[in-house]
């Protein structure tokens, strides 16, 4: 059993944004081609702690075969076990913590145990940046609005800058103004460009045609009407938009069956409408078909549930890069 800590995972992934995006893109294309096994995520909830949850995401990612892969890729199976305890933030702790196990496809034995929160955050950010690049307008994006100043949106900004180098302006909004200021300082210290913090969420939405929403909201609250026509809203936290907004938008998802569950905004829209016809396409289909761009007169919403195959794809990338670097602790007598 190879064990990789959070620090070792970061060492492997820092500066590897393009490799992570390619791993995520490949996983999406394999999923669209039917080369994955993806049971529904299992949510463990606690009656006395309604905001807290731990989620199990089992998955199998197959080989590329004739789907345009390199031919030297190998299938992988495993599971991510990730907790979300929003109250941790008040105690100075990270909201999410996770572990990922990769199993041998020959024996089924667990082979690798990785700290998973770094992988989870970066595969989410890579997914968002990939959608932004795939659904880019004819003119390059020069600014982005971030709603929610936490770990996920910082990673989103890092990946957006890697894929959309023209981005030069960042507008921030968070209910916690101190958190927003701290986030702005981190952005200024690490990433180039002009960073502005605003006090009204409507001003944030109106500032740019690219918006990333990553909050801990459990119920819809966000009035998207200030968004300019042609806005792409990366709806990463999944529960921010009212059903009416979903029903009037162009919706791109990662998987309709997965995202229409657990009281997400799309789940509520499905319950209200009685169908899923409001889902226009999946990111995997767009990548497979090579389609690009978005409607300049409409609000496009990308709502990725966060598929376990993405975690496996990035975890497998980490495994191989860590082995090349000689990182990790090998425990030969784990079994």
The CATH superfamily name of the largest domain is NAD(P)-binding Rossmann-like Domain
The CATH topology of the largest domain comes to: Rossmann fold
Q: What is the 3D shape?
A: globular
Q: In percent, how helical is the residue content?
A: 25-40%
Order of helices and strands: EHHEEEEEEHEHEHEHEEHEHHEHEHE
What distance lies between the first and last C-alpha atoms, to the nearest angstrom? 8 Å
Radius of gyration: 19 Å
Task: Extract low-pLDDT stretches.
Answer: 66-72
Mean pLDDT, as a whole number?
A: 93
CATH class of the largest domain: Alpha Beta
Structural class: alpha/beta
The tally of structural domains comes to 2
Q: Tally the helices.
A: 11
Number of E-state strands: 16
How does the major sheet shape up? Answer: 8 strands, mixed
CATH architecture of the largest domain, by name, is 3-Layer(aba) Sandwich
The oligomerization state is single chain
Residue fraction in strands: 15-25%
Describe the protein.
The chain is of the alpha/beta class. It folds into two domains: 2-120 and 309-330, ornithine cyclodeaminase, domain 1; 137-307, NAD(P)-binding Rossmann-like Domain (Rossmann fold), CATH 3.40.50. Helices cover 36% and strands 24% of the residues. It has eleven helices and 16 strands. Strands 1, 2, 3, 4, 5, 6, 7 and 16 form an eight-stranded mixed sheet that branches. The chain has an eight-stranded parallel sheet with strand order 10-9-8-11-12-15-13-14, sandwiched between helices. It starts with a strand and ends in a 5-residue tail after the last strand. Mean pLDDT is 93; it is low at 66-72.
């Amino acid at each position: 059993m190879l064990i990789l800590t959070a620090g070792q995972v970061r060492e492997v992934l820092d500066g590897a944004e393009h490799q992570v995006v390619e791993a995520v893109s490949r996983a999406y294309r394999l999923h669209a081609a039917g080369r994955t096994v993806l049971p529904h995520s299992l949510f463990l909830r606690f009656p006395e702690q309604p905001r807290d949850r731990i989620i199990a995401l089992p998955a199998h990612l197959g080989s590329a075969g004739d789907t345009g892969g390199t031919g030297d890729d190998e299938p992988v199976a495993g599971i991510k076990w990730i907790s979300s305890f929003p109250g941790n933030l008040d105690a100075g702790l990270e909201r999410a913590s996770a572990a990922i196990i990769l199993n041998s496809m020959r024996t089924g034995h667990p082979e690798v145990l990785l700290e998973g929160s770094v992988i989870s955050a970066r595969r989410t950010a890579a997914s968002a940046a990939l959608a932004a690049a795939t659904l880019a307008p004819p003119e390059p994006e020069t600014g982005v609005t971030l709603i929610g100043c936490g770990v996920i949106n910082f990673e989103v900004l890092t990946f957006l800058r890697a894929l959309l180098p023209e981005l030069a302006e960042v507008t921030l909004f968070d209910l916690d103004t101190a958190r927003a200021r701290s986030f702005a300082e981190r952005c200024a210290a690490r990433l180039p460009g002009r960073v502005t913090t605003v006090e009204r969420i409507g001003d944030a939405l109106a500032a740019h045609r690219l918006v990333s929403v990553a909050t801990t909201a459990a119920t819809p609250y966000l009035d998207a009407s200030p968004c300019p026509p042609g806005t792409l809203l990366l709806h990463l936290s999944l529960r921010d938009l009212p059903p009416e907004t979903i029903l009037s938008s162009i919706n791109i998802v990662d998987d309709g069956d997965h995202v229409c569950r657990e009281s997400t905004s799309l789940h509520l829209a499905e319950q209200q409408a009685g169908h899923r016809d409001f889902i226009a396409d999946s990111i995997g289909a767009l990548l497979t078909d090579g389609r690009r761009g978005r409607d300049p007169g409409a609000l496009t919403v990308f709502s990725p549930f966060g598929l376990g195959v993405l975690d496996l794809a990035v975890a497998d990338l980490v495994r191989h890069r860590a082995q090349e670097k000689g990182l990790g602790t090998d425990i030969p007598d784990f079994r």
